[in-house]
Amino acid sequence: EAGVIIIDVENGSPAEDAGLRPQDIVVQVNRVKVSSIKQYTKEISMAAENRNVTLLIQRGKSRVIVSLHIE
Questions:
Q1: Buried b (16+ CB within 10 A) or exposed e, 23-44
Q2: CATH architecture classification, 4-69
Q3: What integer pLDDT is reported at residue 37 of this predicted model?
Q4: Which pairs from 64-71 meet CB under 8 Å and 24+ separation?
Q5: Which of 8, 9, 34, 49 has its Cβ near the most Cβ atoms within 10 Å?
Q6: pLDDT tens digits along 5-29
Q7: CA atoms of 56 and 27, how far apart (whole Å)
Q8: pTM for the complete prediction?
Q9: Contact partners, residue 56, CB within 8 Å, separation at least 6
Q10: Domain parsing of the chain, residue ranges
């Protein structure tokens, strides 16, 4: 399935605090499928107003739901 691959996770970032890892694939942002970095950025920007984001992550053969707080 299409998604956006996480290349790096900054130490001390909300992404690291939420447990995101390099090579995770973001499949959905707040239940909206994302298949490009442009679409991912748009959804994150819209979600930033609420400061809470729920991501559906493909990690290997598993899917994980991750919630994070955007600062």
A1: ebbbbbbeeeebeeeeebeebb
A2: Roll (2.30)
A3: 94
A4: 64/19, 64/24, 66/18, 66/19, 66/20, 67/18, 68/14, 68/15, 68/17, 68/18, 68/20, 69/14, 70/14, 70/44, 71/14
A5: 34
A6: 999 999 998 899 999 999 999 999 9
A7: 5
A8: 0.88
A9: 26, 27, 28, 31, 63, 64, 65
A10: 4-69
